[in-house]
Known about the structure:
This protein has 93 residues and is mainly alpha-helical. It has a domain of 28 residues.
Amino acid sequence: MNKLMCLALIILPLSTMADDEEPIRLESKIVGDKEQPSVSYFVPWQDASGVDRLYQNVEDRYDDSLDTIDRDVMLRSMHIYDEMNLENNPAPQ
């Protein structure tokens, strides 16, 4: 009986505390960002080079990157790259 009474005295305050708390209701409105200006001004830091660059031929733009390469030169370059072991070097201590 004593244990039951002790248990009831412990549980009773906890149950009343749970009932007394009212739920907290948060109300808010989301308004768009009013700090940003409605107009943006873009000021170039260099003069335009002219309309010639706009109408440049596609083949002229990529001449260097699309050149054919010699197989022997490529293999030699890959061998040198592997010899230097650039990707597997441990960090200096």
